[in-house]
Amino acid sequence: CVGRDFPIALTREELEAGDECHPDEAKVLGDYLKVDWNAQQAAEKFTSPVLQEQDTFATLYRPWGLLSTALIELPADRQKLVELLLAIQSMLSSQRLDWPQLPGWAAMWSDLADWEHWPTEEKAKLSGYFTNRGAAEAEMFLRGITGIPVRWGYAASSLICFRRPGLDCFIIPVHAWLKVAGSRLSAELDSEKRTTLRGSRYNTRGRHMDSPCQTMI
Known about the structure:
The chain is mostly helical. Helix content is 53%, strand content 5%.
């Protein structure tokens, strides 16, 4: 789903294939971004379709995928999108979902934003993508979105220690994180939270690092 006019699924098969958006979810999100809607009202309408599904939890990939894509592709609307996430997070838990925990959100975001599996030649063309991803992630951290911890910011900063082609592209999220949340990262980096990484280690998302330097995360 790209842009404010989100392409919608015309059949159940298209919807389940994940190539298009649920029509109601797409309409609510589009209307919310175009009109001065109350975020809480939009949150209730946006989550209504998934609550009608037989397996609500297994279908959360659909609204989460739409929101993740919008956060990256619509940087001008980032504040409103984060407000929508916060409104969903503030919804009361039900027997079907624990909304305050945003079940599956962090995993969906991390998978969508995972650059490890992209060919190097494509990464060099996606500086805008990396900038928007880093800024959106940092903004979610600042606003207290469940599942986006401070250690993700430190992990992003650790990218400068990678020894691999395309480093000039990979470290773009570092600048975005520091621009949006640098002062907060610095404030939380007290002596009790510091861990020195030397040589070959794993970063805070569990990915292997070959680091020639020391990074405080």
